[in-house]
Design a protein that fits this description.
- 58% of the residues lie in helices and 17% in strands.
- It is α+β, with helices and mostly antiparallel strands.
- The chain folds into 3 domains: 76 residues, 2-Layer Sandwich (Alpha-Beta Plaits); 149 residues, Gyrase A, domain 2, CATH 3.30.1360; 173 residues, Multidrug efflux transporter AcrB transmembrane fold.
- It is found in: Cell membrane.
- Belongs to the SecD/SecF family. SecD subfamily.
- It is a multi-pass membrane protein.
């Protein structure tokens, strides 16, 4: 009786989870019955119980852009490479999320590389623009005139006398200073203060109340507010410069010490340019420079073709396995196929519930785990047949068959699980997808082979089967 109740519970759970995996089956059935029975226009019609929720499909199945960035970790100081790369990943993920890209994948590969996958975006230039060059915001103070003169002389030589430091560093000559910086990568006017975009709490678009000019308001965090207070205190009556990506964009004169931690970037911004700058600043400054080293585009048509072929391969594989099991193991094989159906439903439920991204490699891992699940049943049935040939009853043969097969099943599954963990931890993103689906599939195989197959087998035991052992 208990075995029958357990079997019913498994069947009910499998059916419900099937509708979770494939809700259109329920919803289309509900629509059909509502239409046929006239309930479609009435209040108490059969509802759509299961919301349609799609699987997360990888880039190779839906199309999109695959980018690989390399980080320059030479000047990270006391910071560990791992922390620096984690910071880069977090910043780029925030940046991509701001543009509403569906299910972006941003992950670290190795020690200095970052993988960015943007599903649905097949324009590489658009993808690169989405990530963009993360702004480096810096607050700088005046460099002593003597130092500036030396820097100018170093780069211009005999022509140094044609340029005066005071003139080059004046706010009205900001374009000339930018040209000098672009050409020589050396700043004769301003020096770093340690106050950068990393101390920025948030920024937003504002408009000057007098001129109506678009500006960017900055709010600094606690450390930034203290640095800014010290900066404005020691530079009263002097100029400070706000640099973005190594270029000066504003050179105001400090009128008073500012303790509030608030600052404003003014300039010749259009409202859209100021808004874009604010968004970029809010996304954060990269802790280390990065460069694009690889790019790849997968078309949506190619992705759909790959998905169709994968589904067909999986379906044919399942059917061939089912036919073999039923032909060779007869009733036992039929029970194994039913358990395999439940196994597929449970695995797909986990994939969908936890947002596992399905890729071609991931599908390969799932198909492999399907074979491992079948192998577990084969071990059980082989042991059971040995017990039957030894003259034991069906119940004893089934019990002993499971017990004898358990150790082999456990050991093979555990070693495969360990292999999947190692693959996931130490390999690239493509192999990670394979390892993850393999791990989930093998873990579920361990459950279905011992619990579900066992429940099916004990449910069919009885005098009638005892008289028809040829079915086994």
């Amino acid at each position: 009786m208990r075995s029958r109740i357990g079997l019913i519970a498994i069947i009910v759970a499998t059916v419900l989870l099937f509708f979770f995996v494939y809700p259109n089956a329920w919803n289309k059935g509900a629509d059909f019955l509502n239409k046929k029975t006239g309930l479609e226009s009435k209040k108490h019609k059969i509802p759509h119980f299961f919301a349609v929720r799609a699987f997360h499909l990888g880039l190779d199945l839906v199309g999109g852009t695959h980018l690989v960035y390399q980080a320059d970790l030479k000047n990270i100081g006391d910071q560990s490479a791992g922390d620096a790369m984690q910071g880069v990943r977090d910043v780029i993920e925030r940046r991509v999320n701001q543009f509403g890209v569906s299910e972006p994948l941003v992950q670290i590969e190795g020690t200095d590389r970052l993988i960015v996958e943007l599903a649905g975006i097949t324009d590489v230039n658009q993808a690169i623009q989405l990530i963009g060059q993360t702004p480096l915001l810096e607050f700088k103070e005046e460099r002593p005139a003597a130092e500036g003169t030396v820097i100018i002389a170093k780069h211009l030589g005999a022509d140094a006398g044609k340029i005066q430091v005071d003139s080059l560093c004046a706010p009205q000559n900001i374009v000339a200073l930018s040209t000098f910086l672009q050409q020589f990568q050396d700043d004769p006017c301003f020096k770093s203060t340690g106050l950068t975009g990393s101390q920025l709490k948030n920024s937003q678009l504002i408009f000057d109340q007098t001129t109506g000019q678009a500006e960017v308001s900055l709010t600094l965090n606690g450390d930034g507010a203290k640095l800014f207070s010290d900066l404005t205190k020691r530079n009263l009556g002097k100029r400070v410069a706000i640099y973005l990506d190594g270029q000066p964009i504003s050179i105001p004169t400090v009128q008073s010490q500012i303790d509030s931690g608030n600052a404003v970037i003014s300039g010749t911004f259009t409202p859209q340019a100021a808004k874009d700058l604010s968004n970029r600043l809010n996304a954060g400054a990269l802790p280390v420079p990065i460069s694009l080293v690889s790019q790849q585009t997968v078309g949506a048509t190619l992705g759909q073709a790959s998905l169709d072929k994968s589904l067909k391969a999986g379906l044919w594989g399942f059917l061939l396995v089912a036919v073999f099991m039923i032909v060779y193991y007869r009733l036992l094989g039929l029970m194994a196929v039913l358990a395999l159906v439940a196994y597929v439903v449970y695995v797909l439920t986990i994939y969908k519930l936890f947002g596992v991204t399905m890729t071609l490699a991931g599908i390969a891992g799932f198909v492999l785990s399907l074979g491992i699940a079948v192998d577990a049943n084969v071990l059980i049935f082989a042991r059971m047949r040995e017990e039957l040939r030894a003259g034991k009853t069906l119940t004893a043969s089934l019990q002993d068959g499971f017990n004898r097969a358990w150790y082999s099943i456990r050991d093979s599954h555990v070693t495969t699980l360990l292999s999947a963990v190692i693959l996931y931890a130490f390999t690239t993103s493509i192999v990670k997808g394979f390892a993850l689906t393999l791990f989930v599939g093998v873990a579920m195989s361990l459950f279905t082979s011992i619990v579900i197959t066992r429940a099916f087998m004990f449910a069919i035991l009885g005098p009638r089967l005892e008289k028809n052992r040829w079915l086994l």
